[in-house]
Amino acid sequence: MSGAVSQSLGWALLHLVWQGALVAAALAVALRVLDRRAASLRYLLACGALALMLVLPALTGWYHYASYQETESLPAAPAPVPAATVRVDPAPMVTHAVVPTPEAARATEPSPVLERVLAPLGEHMHWLVLAWSLGVAVSSLRLLSGWLKLRRLVREAEPAPAEWQETLERLARRLDMTRPVRLLRSAALDVPAAVGWLRPVVLLPVSALTGLSARQLEMVLAHELAHIRRYDYAVNLVQTLVETLFFYHPAVAWMSRVIRVEREHCCDDIAVGTSGNAVSYARALTALESLRVMPLQAASPAMSALGGSLTERVRRLVVAPAARCSSRWVAGASVLTLMSGVAVAAPLAALILPEHPSAVSEAPAAPVPASAPLPSLGVVPPLPALSAPGASALASIVTPIVGGVVEAVLAQAPVPPAPVPVPKPAPAAKPAPGLRGGDVDVDVDVPDVDEDTTRVDERLSVDQLIGLKVAGITPERVKELESLGYEPTVGNLVQFGHAHVTPEYVKEMTGALGRKPSAEELVEMKHLGVSPERVKALEAAGYGKLSGDELTQAAALGVDAGFINELKAAGYDKLPFDDLVQLRALGVKGPYVQALKDEGYDKLPVEDLVQFKALGVSPEYLRSLRESGLDKLPADDVVQLRALGVSADFIRKLRDEGLEKLSVDELVRLRASGVDADFIRELRKKK
Question: What does the buried/exposed string (b/e) look like for 593-608 if buried means 16 or more CB atoms within 10 Å of the residue's CB?
Answer without folding.
Answer: beebeebebeebebeb
